[in-house]
Specification:
Length: 301
């Protein structure tokens, strides 16, 4: 279904299902014999959401041969891609902690369990923002699993198209303290002007010494929604009812690294290919509709 300005979702529908999709990939990456990440909460969270396609993927009963371009190499590259991305941002938060930052904001947190699984320095407060049903589900499910946050965790259940800075402040956020921000797997689901506004809002709330982590997805500019529809149609036959092409906002948008640099952030980026090389993962030739994604971290001042 096409996006609207005030659409909402749970973790089994629309944009919410993409959070379940990436968590399933983290669960698979955690099982790797030589893992780059350890996310023990990903699998129980995905199972609790209960989307049959992802549960079967975890059970090893999904027949990927039924999907035209889902070769074992592509499947492994997808899992490895999530592993290097997750590792990049795990290390980003570790570096922020070493630099003395004690306040983190995870925008569009989805099923991200970093507030429970990372080794945060004492006194760290982690804010998580996402739509109400997403926040409520993860909080309840992890509580039922007996999981304990490893930092002070505060949730902000709001749509990022609404006045989230006010909601964040109401939850106790202190704009006078440096913050480590994360916008992972989010930007392509925002219209271009909303992406700029998000970075403007982040900057306005960032004390000197703050950090930002995010991605640059070059392929979104001329993203082929029809091709995506075809690819996901094959997935639909296998039980995943998700039209990815309908969920993203394609077309011209600001270049993330240039936009952040112009705002005064000192930014660094590492492409997915560079991360595959760093972690010695095989990089198959893939015709990836989203292009060569760059993982970005920046510091202010
Ligand atoms: C691909 S998932 C990424 C989740 C998480 N950051 C991760 O990497 O595991 C996209 C997330 O963005 C959230 N999201 C997208 N647009 C949003 C909006 N306008 N307001 C709040 N959350 C949003 C969705 O609810 C979903 O959890």
């Amino acid at each position: 279904m096409a996006r609207t300005d005030d659409d909402s979702w749970d973790l089994a529908s629309s944009v919410g299902a993409t959070a379940t999709m990436v968590a399933a990939a983290r669960a698979m990456a955690t099982r790797d014999p030589n893992p780059l990440i350890n996310d023990p909460f990903a699998e129980p969270l995905v199972r609790a959401v209960g989307m049959d396609f992802f549960v079967r993927a975890l059970d090893g009963t999904l027949d990927i041969s039924a999907m035209p371009d889902a070769s074992p190499e592509r499947y492994q590259a997808m899992v490895d891609g999530m592993a290097v991305r997750t590792r990049f941002f795990d290390e980003y938060f570790a570096a922020a902690g070493e630099a003395g930052i004690r306040q983190a904001v995870i925008l569009a947190a989805g099923l991200d369990s970093r507030a429970y699984r990372l080794d945060w320095p004492d006194g760290t407060v982690v804010y998580e923002i996402d739509q109400p049903e997403v926040v409520e589900f993860k909080t309840r499910t992890l509580a039922e699993l007996g999981a304990q946050p490893s930092a002070t965790r505060r949730t902000v259940a709001i749509d990022l198209r609404e006045d989230w800075p006010a909601a964040l402040a109401a939850a106790g956020f202190d704009a006078a303290q440096p913050t480590a921000w994360l916008a992972e797997g989010l930007l392509i689901y925002l219209p271009p002007q909303a992406q700029d506004r998000l970075f403007d809002q982040i900057l306005a709330l960032s004390a000197p010494g703050s950090a930002v982590g995010t991605e640059y997805v070059p392929g979104i500019v001329d993203f082929d929604a029809e091709a995506a529809k075809e690819r996901f149609a094959a997935m639909r036959d296998a039980g995943l009812d998700l039209d990815f092409g309908e969920l993203v906002y394609r077309g011209d948008r600001s270049h993330v690294l240039e936009y952040l640099t112009a705002q005064g952030w000192s930014v660094d980026g590492l492409s997915r290919a560079e991360l595959f090389e760093r972690h010695q993962r095989p990089m198959p030739e893939l015709d990836d509709a989203l292009g060569e994604i760059v993982y970005v971290s920046g510091r202010l001042g």
